[in-house]
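Researcher: Go.
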Amino acid sequence: MLSPQFCFGRAPLVFALALSVTPSVAADFSGLVEIGGGRKIYLECRGEGSPTVILISGKGDGSGTWSFKPPEYPGPSVSPTIAKLTRVCVYDRPGTIDPETEQPTQSDPISLPTTTGAGAADLEALLNAANVPAPYIIVGHSMGGAIARIFVANHGDLVAGLVLEDAFSGDLYDGMTDEIRAAVETSMGRDPEGYDIPSSIAQLRQAPPIRTMPTIVLTPGLSQITPELIASGALPPEITQAVADEFWPVQTTSQNNLANLFPDGRHVVVTDSSHYIHMIQPSAVIDAITDVVEAVRAGKTSLAK
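Model: Structure:
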């Protein structure tokens, strides 16, 4: 079963272990990488070629989300498909959960709540420690999209393209009532990988503008917070039908505003998908990444040229 919108809740389980190793630039690699401060983060890289695609998962989701195939949604998996096109890397943020085993991922834990800025700093440390070659195409889903935006804003010289999949947006609060704001803060502050939402939004708003580059914003046409999901009891108690009814139009507006930040980019509404586009309609995400890779390889600085 897929997680609710922006991963409102999952249960933490036991910890897994792996050896700490240093990747080769060209060879397939999977293992824990020392990032400094006595911490290790799990990284996996496959395929060959440039630019390097970096896939950033949503709140609570381990890197396996990019290769996991729910039985109810047959189709290609994003990470293995992109590995046939170019080098692709996925990683596990601390506190995330593997979608197949429902076990905690291997990266060393940190104190929670965390922030989008901390996530971007960890990504920078990981790419440096692992010698992952630039230029990068950064692909971010949900909260991973917010981390992507901060990373790209601060390291635009290393990034050649951007894909945002139903990304958490810094203006999400603008249309919220106090009730829905409190519900979002409480839900997204829960394990796994709880976030300090006010601080994360402030970091997004304070980030420098992103330079023009080939960019695609993917937006789902369907809300995942359905009456059936709410009735099932799978969501935290603060996510009521009233909150869901308010949240969806606010989220839709924030996605339109996000796309407007990239006037030379492309906004694609995936009408037959909800939040997890890369699982429900993976071809839409694969096509977006492929288009950005091809644009970068052709020397284009935007999708409008």
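Model: The chain has one domain: 29-297.
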